[in-house]
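Ticket #4471: structure output looks truncated?

Reporter: J.K.
Steps to reproduce: submitted the chain below (290 residues) through the standard prediction queue, then opened the result file.
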Amino acid sequence: GAGKFFCFGCGYSARVFAGRLASRGFAVAGTCRTEEGAERLKAAGIEPFIFAGDKPLEDPGTALEGTTHLLVSTPPAEAGDPVLAAHRGLLAALAPEIRWAAYLSTTGVYGDRKGEWVTEETPLDPNATRSDRRASAEREWQALARESGLPLHIFRLAGIYGPGRNQLKSVADGTAKRIVKEGQIFSRIHVEDIANVLEASMARPRPGAIYNVCDDEPAPAPVVVAYAAELLGRAAPPEIPFEEAALSPMARSFYMASRRVSNARIHDELGVRLAYPSYREGLTALLKTL
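Returned output as attached by the reporter:
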């Protein structure tokens, strides 16, 4: 067979990638937190295992046996990375058999850059606690890779959208807000393009590499919402000044950081051609999924 793919945290993005590998002949397995989640994974052709911060794999040796490709998509906890907390020793022992390992991080680790461009070489400055945890989880995985030879690649993902999770849906169901903050700019990435980047890296492994995963065109959030409304033939929701917007602390922290994320490395080094180079192509294609 092609190999065995194991994913910690087989959620929205990881499931798309796992599905692609299954169609290429990989054995695919992944973790979720609940029995309902396990049923969903099984229905998608993914062998399910229960794993949560307080619940290590029941029989980790059996679950991870034969793994050739590893993806980690679980969010870090206050105490650090839950996968390493539970199974660091076993992963170190398995490292020589693993051909490619990926840790999914976030572009949040760059913090607020006042709209300036960031590359993979930009020093990290995570300002939100959530992103700070991501930065320390990256360091934990890098330490394991140094000690064990795990062929680790880090992918810093921008805001993820795709079927069932996009501005067309929020405009259509009336929950979309057009929050305007001077100079505010975000990068985003379609879930299928995350899978494109991961597949390209698997084909050209470079252990130790870090990749920004975003599309070619950073844009202000209200512009994207207005475009979604236009595609649906609706009036755009009214603009709300950031200062007046009722936002959760998480949403507020999201608006406090402005940066343009460069994706030159995925193009130049991995030869990635994005299916959706900007939100326009992405949202236009997603019209069919509503």
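Triage note (M.O.): checked the attachment and the full token line is present. The chain has a mean pLDDT of 95.
Status: closed, working as intended.
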